[in-house]
Specification:
single chain; 365 residues; alpha+beta; 19 helices
Length: 365
């Protein structure tokens, strides 16, 4: 739980914990994994100017005193954070527990990353050593490689941090998680209602299973989401269903979502996100089916043309150039999205001027 400044002591700690649990997320590398915190502990550690381990002060048990500096230089700035009664009880019961405190700028305010065990502190040290970006360019790939082995760690907090970090990885990396950890490590996220907003990653991991009962569960969940108009994890169930039965699922999406005028914006967003994610993988046959499905989408929901154009531009696909050109000319309802369509049309025109590129494009048409 994040610590609060003394001036905010009137706000209950329980309320703060509840707020943090419900915090919405920013869009991550895996566009389907929604509901996650915008920043993880690793972000705070990597971005901090100073990181210290602290416990209660001997002079004032309600104040923190730094015991060790993990990163940067502690400049003596007052740590204006309260040591609450629960934290004091934990400190009394276990001498190998600390609070990790971070300071983003020299002389700036301090933020608490909460109670940390010895194993968690060890991971924090490694994050600071290996991932802190001090001009050396800690790449995303390096970060995923760091957290992948921790996904099934026996320390619950380390396991949770790895889960949050891996939710940012692209689908090709997420597909490895089925082999990196046991089902016991991620199944609680899928079955426990407390983790409803964290389920998307677990759903995508489940999609890698070869067990018939898992495949059946995925398809049933996806169809149930349609029946009841559910959208919270629709993108994840749709993506998982595509993984399990690509052809049938895409036809279902076309019939139940694309060809229906009353499909909600949220429903369309979800299924398009699932299709887009799969279309971005290195699977030409699956991408062909998705491009054909986009043609159905545009026939009933032309306002989605900018999204389609963005994907086709990224995938270097020219099949829908005539459809998109027609939509651009006749539909004025999404002027802001015309940039995406125009960019795509110009890219196709440029490619067709190259004999080699033109031959490859026409092979796909």
């Amino acid at each position: 739980m994040r610590q609060v400044h003394r001036s905010q002591q009137s706000l209950s700690f329980a309320a703060i914990a509840l707020l943090m649990a419900a915090m919405p997320a920013a869009v991550s590398a895996c566009t389907i994994c929604i509901g996650f915190p915008e920043k993880t502990d690793a972000d705070y550690l990597v971005q901090a100017d100073c990181v210290v381990l602290a416990r209660e002060s001997r002079k004032d048990p309600f104040s923190f005193a730094p015991l060790e500096t993990l990163k940067g230089h502690y400049d003596g700035t007052e740590i204006d954070l309260l040591v609450d009664s629960k934290t004091r009880r934990i400190f009394r019961a276990d001498p190998d527990r600390w609070v990790i405190l971070v300071q983003n700028t020299r002389g700036g305010p301090w933020h608490s990353l909460g109670i940390a065990s010895k194993p968690y502190v060890s991971v924090a040290r490694r994050i600071i050593l290996l991932l802190s970006d001090s001009g050396k360019g800690a790449t995303e790939q390096k970060r995923w490689e760091f957290f992948l082995p921790l996904f099934g760690h026996r320390d619950a907090r380390i396991r949770q941090l790895a889960y949050l970090e891996m939710s940012r990885a692209p689908y090709r990396v997420i597909k490895q998680l089925d082999h990196a950890a046991s089902r016991d490590d991620w199944m609680p996220m899928l079955n426990d209602r407390r983790y409803l907003q964290w389920r998307s990653l677990a759903i995508l991991i489940l999609a890698q299973s070869e067990k018939p009962q898992d495949k059946e569960r995925i398809l049933e969940a996806f169809h149930s989401a349609h029946r009841f108009g559910l959208t919270t994890t629709l993108a994840a169930w749709a993506a998982a269903a595509i993984e399990v039965d690509c052809g049938s699922t895409i036809r279902f999406i076309e019939d139940k979502y694309f060809r229906r005028a009353n499909s909600s914006a949220e429903e369309l967003d979800a299924v398009i996100t699932a299709l887009s994610m799969h279309g971005s993988q290195q699977d030409a046959e699956r991408q062909d089916l998705i491009v054909a499905s986009y043609r159905v989408l545009l026939g009933h929901h032309p306002q989605r043309a900018p999204q389609v154009a963005d994907d086709l531009y990224a995938w270097k696909r020219s099949e829908l150039v005539d459809v998109l050109a027609s939509i651009r000319e006749r539909d004025l309802s999404f002027a802001a999205g015309k940039h995406s369509i125009t960019r795509y049309l110009r890219a196709v025109e440029s490619l067709e001027e190259s004999p080699l590129a033109s031959e490859k494009l026409h092979e796909r048409r």
